[in-house]
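Tokens for MFS transporter. Go.
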Amino acid sequence: MSVPAAPLDAPPGQPRKAAMAAWIGSALEYYDFFIYGSAAALIFPKVFFDESDPATATLLSLATFGVAYAARPIGALFLGHFGDRLGRKKIMVFTLILMGLSTFLIGCLPTRAQVGGLAPVLLVLCRVLQGISAAGEQASANSMTLEHAPSNRRGFFTSFTLSGTQGGQLLATLVFLPVAALPDDQLLSWGWRVPFWLSVAVAVVGYVIRRTLEETPAFTRQAATEGVAKLPLAVLFREHWADVLRVVAGALIASVSTIFTVWALAYGTSDSVGLSRSQMLWVGALANLVALAAIPAWATLSDRIGRRPVYLIGAAGSAVLMFAYLWAISTGSYPLVLLFGILAFGVVYSAANGVWPSFYGEMFSTRVRLSGMAIGTQIGFAVAGFAVTFAAQIAGPGGDDWSSVALFTSALCLPPVLAALTARETHKVPTELLGERVPGEAAQREAVTA
């Protein structure tokens, strides 16, 4: 696929470098995030919550998966503020270090059998640190790539953030496959720790790339001319409150991902279905492999026909295909599970996933873009994170009421559809005019600029 030339005021090669930095960082963030999800479904009920009956232990373990999502809106407030005041690069480096450290520490934690109730407390604390890191990662990476990208290819370049997310999920799954195949005594003693320790290698590579990245031309120009906002959040909620609400509603689409990668994994390997851990992990691996190609393809299409139609295909299509995927699992037919898993998550969900970085980012002006994306997405993602816990309750005592879980997930796809229908189409708006509503608006904001 050919890559267009950089904007005239961007250093040569920076759009490509920004896209690669976003890809590497997001891959680490979501490698870390989703090895936790796999462990929460398969390992942690037996390691940190083994004093409970199996159903309760699974519920408690999945609740810790959601804890990071609860922490993300809080992290978004702080990281969004500093990202719009200090720049995108500083936040990207900070989030990378924090995620790598907190994930490594999870692999070092003692189990409940070793230290009692302190073990799950330490697990939750590390999970909170992961959530704070993730709160600023995608928003800063999306802002960095969008503001470096040529105006007519913003969809393509920003999609690298989400390609990195899928790459991280794929890497997490591939690392977990041999681990999950270990005998239970080795898996539950030391085997589960290895994927968490390996995050250090990815963190080092990402750090080196991000340290050499230039700040974006749009942020540099903003700081040099009008100045940065003293209180970005005040500007955001005064001028862009409706767009923040749209992003919150749109971000609920992430429920499809959490249900697919965590609840469906636990359901498929349950006694009522009987698929193996390796079989279900391979579904995720192949779906994410397909998504690596589908995401930039959908994003490129959005550069031609617009963000809204592509996003709507992903949101509405995911609502329908979640029924097909969970039904396929209920049948125990692995070919059906594989087919609908790849179609639902690898192809259709990728339409919304590949477009939202540009779609959401283009709703805001440079001075509040990072905080607008961070706060809007992380509030919506918080709901998505706990969707797994709700699904575990909705599925009933036996954990096998898949149709209720599918209906619940589909209902969470409705707000994203409504958000897209009410949003402006922005794919042809020049980068410097994004988020501006009336001529001379910048001159009216001097009271809140430095």
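Confidence is low (pLDDT under 50) at residues 1-8, 438-450.
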